[in-house]
């Protein structure tokens, strides 16, 4: 059977700040992210399977990505926990804001690596993550491809 790629696109709003950066992004700001998740596999051939003809049910892929990424990152502010931003994070958290502390500089490049690891762990064994595209503005995005890693 042929290998088929399917893609589902997700949207979420996230704030961040890049500690030590020499431009405007050192300030707390946010983006309307679009995450394209592409998986690859062979369509189910068992005619008795309710998912016959599907690589993976879009609903199943949606559940994985929502639980691992969208529901966690949406309307949160992300900071590198290994920087003095941890003090700002604590202040925001104490005031009831949703804050995420991560082990990396929260750039699109590093976020897409983090997302790839989270998604790969949840996919069924017969489905592989092919690529991710994390778009932070209309003209800027980071991509991750399994074939490059």
What does this structure look like?
The protein is of the alpha/beta class and 149 residues long. The protein has a single domain (4-145), classed as Tetrahydropterin Synthase, Chain A (2-Layer Sandwich). The chain contains 3 helices and 6 strands. The protein has a 6-stranded mixed β-sheet, sandwiched between helices. Strand 5 and strand 6 form a beta hairpin. Helix 1 (58-73) crosses helix 3 (108-122). Keywords: Lyase, Metal-binding, Queuosine biosynthesis, Zinc. InterPro entries: 6-PTP_synth/QueD, 6-PTP_synth/QueD_sf. This is 6-carboxy-5,6,7,8-tetrahydropterin synthase. The active site is at 25 (proton acceptor), 75 (charge relay system), 136 (charge relay system). Zn(2+) binds at residues 16, 29, 31.
Note the main attributes of this structure.
single chain, six-stranded mixed beta sheet, 28% helix, 6-carboxy-5,6,7,8-tetrahydropterin synthase, Tetrahydropterin Synthase, Chain A, alpha/beta, 149 residues
Instruction: Give the number of DSSP strands.
Output: 6
CATH homologous superfamily label: 6-pyruvoyl tetrahydropterin synthase/QueD
Distance between the termini: 25 Å
Q: Average pLDDT across residues?
A: 97
Summarize the structure.
The chain has 149 residues and is α/β, with parallel strands linked by helices. 28% of the residues lie in helices and 34% in strands. The chain has one domain (4-145): 2-Layer Sandwich (Tetrahydropterin Synthase, Chain A), CATH 3.30.479.10.
Q: How are the SSEs placed, and which strands pair?
A:
Blueprint lengths: L3 E13 L12 E13 L16 H16 L2 E5 L4 H10 L4 E4 L5 H15 L5 E10 L2 E6 L4
């Amino acid at each position: 059977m042929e290998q088929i790629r399917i893609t589902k696109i997700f949207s979420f709003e996230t704030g961040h700040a890049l500690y030590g950066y020499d431009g405007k992004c050192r300030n707390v700001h946010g983006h309307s992210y679009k995450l394209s998740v592409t998986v690859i596999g062979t369509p189910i051939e068992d005619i008795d399977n309710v998912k016959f003809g599907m690589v993976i049910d879009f609903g199943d892929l949606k559940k994985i990505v929502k639980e691992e990424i969208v529901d966690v990152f949406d309307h949160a502010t992300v900071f590198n926990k290994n920087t003095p931003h941890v003090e700002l994070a604590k202040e925001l958290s104490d005031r009831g804001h949703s804050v995420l502390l991560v082990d990396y500089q929260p750039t699109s490049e590093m976020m897409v690596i983090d997302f790839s690891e989270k998604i790969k762990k949840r996919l069924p064994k017969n489905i592989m993550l092919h690529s991710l595209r994390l778009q932070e503005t209309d003209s800027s995005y980071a991509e991750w491809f399994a074939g490059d890693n």
